[in-house]
Design a protein that fits this description.
With 115 residues, the chain is of the alpha+beta class. 19% of the residues lie in helices and 22% in strands. Strand 2 (14-16) and strand 3 (21-25) form a beta hairpin. Bound molecules: zinc ion (ZN). This is Zf-CSL-domain-containing protein.
Length: 115
Amino acid sequence: MGAYYDEIEIEDMAWDEEKGVFHYPCPCGDRFEISRGQLANYEDIATCPSCSLIIRVIYDPLDFEDEPPDDDEDVTALEEEQDDDKSDSDEEATFKDAMDRLRISEEPRLVIATA
Ligand SMILES: [Zn+2]
């Protein structure tokens, strides 16, 4: 995006115990705010309630991972899906080979009849 007013490290922000938010002075006179829950939810945009400016908060999400998120946003785990399309022809050839081998190895066997 690159539309941030500024990028601020979390160490440079102040902690508001009462509201449970980190804040940083906004040029409009108000202040940017971001909650611990937002940080835990990998959000890094602090907003100013009085104007449209936003800042990007530089922080380590691992420092906040124990914090319960303060909204119900679905954080779906990235599931690595195996791409089995790429070797289709190869697999088919391998399959035919296997079938050939299977046929070759289909030698008559002595079947011992168990009476
Ligand atoms: Zn502002």
